[in-house]
Structures are given as structure tokens and as C-alpha cells.
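Case study B.
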Amino acid sequence: MIYKRIIYALLYSRGEFHLSRNFRLQKVGDVKWLKNNFGFGETCDFIDELVIINVTPNPSEADFNNFFKDINELREKIFLPITIGGGIRKLDHVRKCFENGADKILVNFLAHKNKLVCEQIATIFGEQAISIMVDYKKDEKNLSSYINSGKVFSKTLKEFIDSMENLKFGELILNSIDQDGTAAGLDLDCLDLIPKKFKNPILVMGGAGKPEHFIDALSHEKISGVITANLFNFLGKGLQEARNFSIKKNIRLIKFEGVNI
Amino acid sequence: MTDLKTKIGIINCDFGNIASLINAIKHLKYNYEVLKRPSDLKFITHLILPGVGSFNKSAKRIRETGWSDAIIDHTAKKKPFMGICLGMQLMFETGSENGEESGIGLFKGRCEEFSNKNEIKLPHMGFNLVSHSNSKIWKDIPNNSPFYFVHSYRIVNDKKNCDKEEYISNTYYGEDFISFIENDNIFGAQFHPEKSHKIGLKLIKNFAEIKN
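Model:
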């Protein structure tokens, strides 16, 4: 009933935006580079949302402040919903994210380790304002969830999803470490772990590399949206083309058209 | 060149997401001021109440801080006013989020959670189309344009609640709900125009161009 979404994610660490492949990061440029190259502003006209994640491990307060400074520069000319996350441990971090233009915040670690703070965020800012991201990969038997940039095993993905049952939050982002940056298509097997009664919107991330991948994922009834962080495949006209192609193939996406201001 | 006399006041009542709204107004090159208390209202021609958070807490806060009365005064002088998202919901009589509470009461009606929860996912989040009233504020905006929504509560669309002078715009999400309401120079948007690409900027511009 609601429209499906194509979302763009920027991975940021210490002044630079990054490409990620199986959670290994590679610097590609700073905020000025991003603003001035590859038609970033134009890209934003054709996406539903932007996600910006600070992937710095254990960010200090100074790291947070530099992150916000760069976000603010980026945001001056883009007018779309933004989710900000990465390194959020306490309410003060959350508050700063909202002060710096977040519509939603994204938590990962807290959903594994401190549900009390998650509850507080939902109570203070509204449940729709907290997105929960879970990083997972295939181990010998199961899909397993990981924390600390994919380095530390937390619990099986099924245990993680089941532990969400009584938690108030907005949407769930399933981020596949195996598919991350491969451009080989999104993992949809993880959806088998979602119980029937699960009501929150589900987004999948990791592996989108061409328009057909969006169609494969977005045509799945459980999926509300696809997130891509693939800077080179989709900047400029790439996502606009993927979007229009998906609409042609009857995926229920909003068609964005320009207007003269 | 924009009218130099226009000065947009943005109410900063601790629960708004005003950074993006400020960027939008800056981009459109209007004068603006972020207002901490009602006494800051001097010289303000156009007033905006943004909002993210829960109805109950925010309704209490705008009363305690005197903003509720200040908004009523501002609108009584026929000066343009717009509530956005929770700011729009607060313009109505009552809300049920986290316990029953009264709003400002500029419009009749009640803010409740979407009722058909078995058929829809909450929150209603993402772009959705607005079937608009084609009034002055919608100038040059195509009907059924996409705007960005994030909310689990909505104003119940009960036609009996509406006065004759009110224009209602609707959006469908399992039901037709009120996504925009206006009466003279008073406007409420359930969606976020400052987050709705260039179409949203156009709506903010049309609001700023309304003369007292």
C-alpha cells in the first residue's frame, strides 16, 4: 500500500567518505569532493532518503563533532529525509543527531547491548525516529549478527530478531556483511527469519549493483526499501535510472519530478 | 529578490527538528529567526511550529512556555502561521498519544493513532501523494505531488469536524486522512515540506509569499 523506497547511504569516517567491501573500508573523498563531484545533489533528487553512518570505531566526542560539521555542510542544498547513525551510545548522542538534521537515528550496538536506552529514545523522540540496523553474515550453520563493525559475534540473527519483539522502534535494517560492496545482489534469505507478526518496516542493505537487484528485493512483500552505499555505481544518474526502470517493471515507487521554485 | 519585510519565525520548543527547516528557508533566501520564547515574536511576519516527538509532552510544553497563547495571538492578527508534522497535530483540540491531552485548538478535531493497524504498517513513513485543495498555497504545485511523511498518529478525517471555510487536503494510507489543512492564513502540514525535495521548497515559498 505504501510506496517502496530506494535509499542512499554514505559511510563516513574522520573527514572522509568511504566505499565498503565486506566491511573493509576504502577512502574516496571528503565532503567537498562529494559535493563537487559525481552529481551528488542530482542523485538526492531521485532518492527517497539519505542515510549517513559514522563508521569510525568508538568515535570520540571530537569525532562526533567533526562528523556533524561535515553533515551540516552536505545538508545545505539537499532537502530530503536523513537518518544519522554510527557510534550512538547515549541519549546525548541522539539529541545531537536530531539537532544536526536527523529525521531518524540509527542504532546498532545499543539494540544488542542496551535496550533500555533504545526504549528511552522511542519514548522521548517517538518510535518512528529510531531505526535499528543489524549487521549479519553467514557462519557455518546460521546467519549470525555482529557488533563492532562486524568484528564481534553477538547472537544468531534469529535470536536478534526475536529479541526485538517487545521493543518499540521504527524500522529494521538488515545489513549483509557478505554482500556488502560486492554489487552481486541483495541477500533475501534473511527474510525467512522474520516472524509473520513482525510489523515494522524492513529495509535491506548490501549488494545492490544494478537496477535488477532493486527489482528483485523490492518485489518481495516483506521489504519496504533497499539501501545502497555503492558510491560509484549509482552517483549521478544511476539511481534515477534504476528508479525509473523499477517503476516500468511495476515496482511501487514514487516518481519524483522537478518543479520550478 | 524576495520581500525584505518578510521575516519567518521558527519556534524552537526543544522538540522540533529545525535544522532542515532553516536550511530550506536559507536556500529560499528569506529572513528568519529561531525563536526561543514568545517575546521574540516582534517583527515576525510568518510563524512556523515544527515538531518531532509525542503529542502529550509537546502540548504541555507549548502551554507552559506560553507559546500556545502566542500562536493564538499571532493568528488572530491574521498573520500567516504553519504547523508541521507534530506542529500540525498540536493545532487541533485533542490528542491521544501517551495519554489524553489538549492541543492549541485552532482546528476542531482529534489526533489518534491510525485505527486499521492490521492492514497497514506503522509508522506511516516515506513519500506519499497529497490530493490537494488547489488553494493559494498550492500555486504551481501539481495535484497528487509526493511529500514526505513520518507519523503513527493522524487527524481523524471526520467531515463533521470541519468548518466551512476550511480547506482539507487528503492522503491515502489505509484510509483518507487529513494531510494538510488551512483556514485563511492558518496552515497545517502533516508531512515535512522541508524534506520533500523541490516540491516541498515550493510550498514553503508559497507560504512565505502570503501577505498579511
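The longest helix of chain B spans residues 197-208. The remaining cases will be described in the next quarterly update.
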